TrEMBL record:
Species for this entry: Orlajensenia leifsoniae
InterPro entries: Lysozyme-like_dom_sf
Superkingdom of origin organism: Bacteria
Residue ranges the record marks as coiled coil: 150-237
This protein's UniProt keywords: Coiled coil, Signal
The organism's taxonomic lineage, starting at the top: Bacteria, Bacillati, Actinomycetota, Actinomycetes, Micrococcales
UniProt name for this protein: Lytic transglycosylase domain-containing protein
Signal sequence extent: 1-27
């Protein structure tokens, strides 16, 4: 999918939204089989009940999209907070190490300085040797040697004293910097913990609702099929077709915007030699997503047969989704909001393929294959477009 440039801060801002779940229609609001049978008694009642059930299905899909979007945003916010915490921890550790080294070197210089001063005191110092040299000429050579040695010791002592003072001052400065870095680290640790708890709460809420949504969706689809006397797959294809049509319309509008942006970028690149593009999807915190690229590819290899595509098309699909997401169900592009194996933009579009779109690689793949078939005809058509435009 298209990887648009966006304001990364929008992810953090969206993550601050409270996870206030607006329930879909409660279980007791769903039509019972008795109501379905009663509705079949007249065309008017059947039509009204079909509309009612369709509205419930739409409501379930919308709620799945909303809960999934919130969970993704919370997970992305935690991923950013954790990265900032790790960087701050590394900075604090470096400063503490530098501080400890400076303290040790200052102490060593002080000790060596003290030893030299003690040696000078024991030997009487350079002044005593100078007096002996003036009064006693019997051992001038020895006294001159001793005087030179004492002079060097005095110079070494002065140098060590300066070094000890310098390293001590440096240690004090590093201690102050380390204290600031540790305070910032602790602040970021608290923020990361809060983000983690929010992400986990969002996942738990979405997971709890998912089971009920899947059961309700299956019941409603069965009731709808019974009312309309049509096969369930006909209704499902209609729903998917509507979703694909809307996705195609949105993609067409986005393509126009992308073309304009590409033209502007090309004009700018002509002036400064710049350029770039490519994927930006990385895994985010998703504790309830079992992301298995190998299993996802195996599922897709079996699923493409329903579209009449062969092994050559699967090769194109492999390259396409390797580039987009690495076949990871939890891949998220923070700059555009694209999510999942096919990098649906936004991710909640995949709710049309199933309420478990955020966590189920198979649901993501089903949606992606339908999108590719509707828009490009085949995976190789989508791959060719991606090679030229860097999105599909």
């Amino acid at each position: 999918m298209r990887l648009r440039t966006g304001v990364i801060a929008a992810v953090a801002a969206a993550s601050l939204l409270a996870l206030t779940v607006v329930p879909a229609a409660s279980a007791e609001d769903y039509p019972t089989w008795d109501e379905v049978e009663a509705a079949r008694s007249s065309a008017a009642a059947t039509s009204a009940e079909v509309d009612r059930i369709s509205d419930f299905i739409t409501s379930l899909t919308a709620e799945s999209a909303r809960l999934g979007r919130i969970t993704i945003e919370k997970g992305a916010a935690y991923t950013v907070a954790k990265a900032e915490l790790d960087a701050a921890t590394r900075r604090a550790d470096v400063l503490v190490t530098q501080r400890d080294t400076a303290v040790a070197e200052a102490a060593d210089a002080h000790d060596r300085y003290g030893a030299i001063v003690s040696q000078l005191v024991v030997s009487g110092g350079t002044e005593s040797l100078t007096v002996q040299l003036l009064l006693d000429h019997s051992s001038d050579t020895d006294l001159l040697y001793r005087l030179g040695a004492m002079t060097k010791l005095t110079q070494q002592a002065a140098g060590l004293e300066d070094r000890a003072e310098s390293r001590s001052n440096e240690a004090d400065a590093l201690s102050a910097q380390a204290a600031v870095a540790e305070k910032e680290r602790d602040k970021l640790a608290a923020a990361a913990q809060t983000a983690l708890e929010e992400a986990q709460a969002a996942e738990q809420e979405a997971g709890a609702r998912l089971a009920a949504q899947k059961e309700a969706s299956a019941t409603l689809q069965a009731q709808l099929a019974s009312l309309t006397a049509q096969a369930a797959d006909v209704e499902k294809r209609y729903t998917e077709g509507e979703a694909a049509r809307k996705a195609a319309e949105a993609a067409a509008a986005a393509a126009a915007a992308e073309a304009a942006a590409a033209a502007a970028a090309a004009a700018e690149a002509a002036g400064d030699g710049g350029g770039g593009g490519g994927g930006g999807a990385t895994p985010i915190y998703t504790g309830d997503v079992d992301s298995d690229p190998g299993a996802a590819q195996a599922y897709a290899a079996g699923a493409i047969g329903a579209y009449g595509w062969g092994g050559d098309q699967f090769g194109c699909l492999q390259r396409l989704w390797n580039k987009e997401s690495g076949w990871r169900a939890d891949a998220y592009n923070a700059s555009s909001g694209a999510y999942g194996i096919p990098q649906s933009l936004p991710g909640e579009k995949m709710a049309s393929a199933g309420v478990d779109w955020r966590t189920n690689a198979g649901t993501q793949i089903n949606w992606g294959l339908s999108y590719i078939a509707q828009r490009y005809g085949s995976p190789c058509g989508a791959w060719d477009h991606s090679v030229v435009w860097n999105w599909y």
